[in-house]
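Sanity check. The docking grid for PXL depends on where the pocket ends up, so I'm generating a full predicted complex first rather than guessing from homology. Inputs follow.
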Amino acid sequence: MKRALTIQDISCVGKCSLTVALPIISAFGVETSVIPTAVLSTHTAFKNFTFCDLTDEIEKISNAWQKENISFDAIYTGYLGSSKQISIISELFKTFKTKDNFILVDPVMGDNGKLYSGFDQTFADEMALLCKNADVIVPNLTEASFMLHTPYIASGYDEEYIKDLLKKLCALGVKTAVLTGVSPKGKENLLGVYAFNSETGEYFSYYREKLPESFHGTGDVFASSLCGALTTSNDLYGALKTAVDFTVLSIQKTVENKNHNWYGVDFESALPYLLK
Ligand code: PXL
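Predicted complex below; grid placement will be based on this.
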């Protein structure tokens, strides 16, 4: 069985980060190992939350794994709490990267032109350095703009603008950059992903109809399903399609459930799609 490692926080309630990544990657038939970077009572979109930092555990866990000769087919990072965590995880990448596995970095730090609470430009610059060591990165337009120091453009941009951002992201040192939440001029009714493989020079885009509602946690659902799909097949374009379709289905299931929570998507109801 393939084994993936995912490194992100546990938000005890909130349907994001590890509570999303574990079930989704497992649904691909992939053993899912974790390093929790922090334990929060909920994610940070709630008004009141606790935060227990686990930065000091990361190196201890990594050192113990080295003694046990543990290895991974995939390493996927999501929400990280501090610049210090980023530098520790850069070292962990060097330790566990092999010629056969891949590193997926979701540089979680913001949306809709704004950084999430607790993040600043310095954090975005450190995240850009972490991306250098990744095979695949999946920023949204906000995260890409902060990492590249380019102005955030919410709408009205064309595909050339997206291609230019993708080239600049790959210039950070990453092999494949994927921009998420893309809706260019002429496709305003659609939302999708646009990817650039800097080794082959190929672009790939995949869109679905834009849904009337958006929800917290869809980025984590997308990145987790992309991790599962890439671990089980090295077809990037097929994996991106699976991840987009699973994310759209999760949103549809949420909308169908009239009693859905405000804080996350009902990806649980969409899991049977991955088991097919
Ligand atoms: O969904 C990304 C995420 C993960 N973890 C925590 C968050 C967020 C987004 O707000 O606050 C703690």
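Relevant for the grid: The longest strand covers residues 31-42.
Also worth noting: The chain is about 40% helix and 25% strand.
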